[in-house]
Structure formats: structure tokens, C-alpha cells
Amino acid sequence: MPDLPPLNSLRAFEAAARHLSFTKAAQELHVTPAAVSQQIRQLEAFYGIPLFRRTTRTLILTEAAQMALPDVKEGFDRLMEANRRLRSDRHGNLLTVSSSPSMGERWLLPRLERFRAQYPDIDIRIDTTDRLADFVNDRVDIAIRYGRGNYDGLESDILMQDVAYPVCSPTLLDGDKPLKEPNDLRHHTLLHPEWRQERDAQPSWQMWLRAAGVTGIDVTRGLRFSSDTMLAHAAADGLGVALALSSMVQRELADGKLVRPFGDGGSQIETVFRPYLVYPKRNLALTRVAAFRDWAMKEAATPRL
């Protein structure tokens, strides 16, 4: 094997080149800037070429360093992945699933016992977060994400088609101003999921009312919620009528806590963003990941809780 420079020198080079700063590299590596500078000098001496051009205010990569940096970064990524795999082999039956809080609570959790019954030897760790999974540093095996499915460098399988439609408590179907037809919505509070309002392509009350042929309702009014879980609870508690995603209210519809006031044949809107299974292709070689993927795809194809 050809001689290699010290690993610490390569780490210092990669961090300094990425930040274009010895100070920021030192902070990341928990050493002093002088230590980073010393490691860079050792690397330059090893190869016999300069790697940085230093000015009074900036740090500039030489042409040779620019050409080498992508390979060095890829090498460290591979080392991190190898480290993750070796560490995970100590607990080869532990599956780590990353999910947004809403998908984790409203879709995955009600079904999880069936996975456990089918695969009793696989332990599960659920990591709920709205940020995209870091499959290397967070030791995540597979993720459930709501989006368009275009995740660079990752495989993505659509779990289900999603639609949006109004839901409410059964108590709103009767009373002084019963919900009988879409025009009756003008007498009720509209419940909005605030995160969806930030995505212009996603369904909104304005879109739904237009599709239903209803005019004269102020869609800027109402209550807004930052999670689908809170939205569903608010609707079930009779606070108003929610425009909900079908994947997020299956449990309440099945339990009768929520109803579709205009019937199953009422207007509904197709969504651009959908639930996806996301994972590095290499992870399918792991039995636990392949088992979860196959199970989740079958669950999504079966309309049950």
C-alpha cells in the first residue's frame, strides 16, 4: 500500500479547506488554530507542494488542493459510513427509523405493533425530527419524509397518494348552524395547518373552496396550527373545520371522532407533497432495513389502522 500521510493532517486539511479558515476548522476539531496550521504544514511537507495561499484576510486553495478536496471528503464520508456499519453490527437487530413527528405519531405508531409481531427479533428506535435525516452521523437506517421524493443521492419510494379534504367533529353536523353543504362553512371557523401555507403548491382552503365552487368566505381568518396532530385534535374538539391530509386523520375517521361533513364523495384535492420512504441504496443490504421497507409498503397499500 502506498505511503499515506497522518490521518489527523488530512482531517485538518479537509476542515480548513471546507471552511477556508484555520480558526473555524480548529473549532470543529476542538484544537487550536496553531495546531491546525502545524498539521497543514506537515501535509504540505509530505507532498512537497503548497495547499493554501495565505493572504492577510483570506485563505485560498491552490489548484492541487481544489482537485484533491472532493476525494478527501469522499474518503472521510466512507470512513464514517464504515464506522457506522461496524458500530451498528454490535446491535445488528436495532433498526433506526427517522420520521417527522406528525408521520411518526399519526401513521407509523398505530401500525408499529404489527411490525413487531411480524419481526420480533428486530428492535426499533424511532427518531422524530422535522430535519432531513443524516444517515451517517445520526446512524439512521431509513426515514419517512413528506415531500416531492427528490432526495439527492438517496432512494425514495412513495408510500401512498395523499388527498386533502374537510373534516370536523360530528357535533358540527347538527346545532344552530349545521354543516350540510360547502356553503355552510361561512358559519364555521376554518382550521389551517400553518406549515402547509408556506408551500404554495400544497392544498389550502382557498384552493378547496374554489374547487367546490364556493365564494364569499374569508380564507385569511381562522386558527392555525404548526402540526397536523394539533390540527386533528382541534377539529375533533369541535373548534372548527380542518382541511386535513388523508394520511393524517385515518385514526380519527375510523374512531368516529372526525367525519367528512360532505361525505366521502365530497371535493378533495390531490397533493404535490406525499409520504416517502427514504434511504441510501446500500442500506437495503441490511436485513432489518429491507424488512421494514417491505412491511411499510404493504401497510401503506392496505387502508387499515
UniProtKB/TrEMBL annotation:
InterPro entries noted in UniProt: LysR-type_TF_proteobact-type (IPR058163), LysR_HTH_N (IPR000847), LysR_subst-bd (IPR005119), WH-like_DNA-bd_sf (IPR036388), WH_DNA-bd_sf (IPR036390)
Database matches in Gene3D superfamilies: Periplasmic binding protein-like II (3.40.190.10), Winged helix-like DNA-binding domain superfamily/Winged helix DNA-binding domain (1.10.10.10)
CDD domains recorded: PBP2_GcdR_TrpI_HvrB_AmpR_like
The keyword Thylakoid is annotated on this UniProt entry: no
MF terms in GO: DNA-binding transcription factor activity; sequence-specific DNA binding
GO biological process, one term: DNA-templated transcription
Domain HTH lysR-type: start-end pairs: 5-62
Record key words, sorted: DNA-binding, Transcription, Transcription regulation
Pfam families, alphabetized: HTH_1, LysR_substrate
This protein's record includes keyword Transcription: yes
Protein family: Belongs to the LysR transcriptional regulatory family.
Cited NCBIfam families: PRK11139.1
Protein's name in the database: Transcriptional regulator GcvA
Gene source species: Hwanghaeella grinnelliae
Taxonomic lineage: Bacteria, Pseudomonadati, Pseudomonadota, Alphaproteobacteria, Rhodospirillales
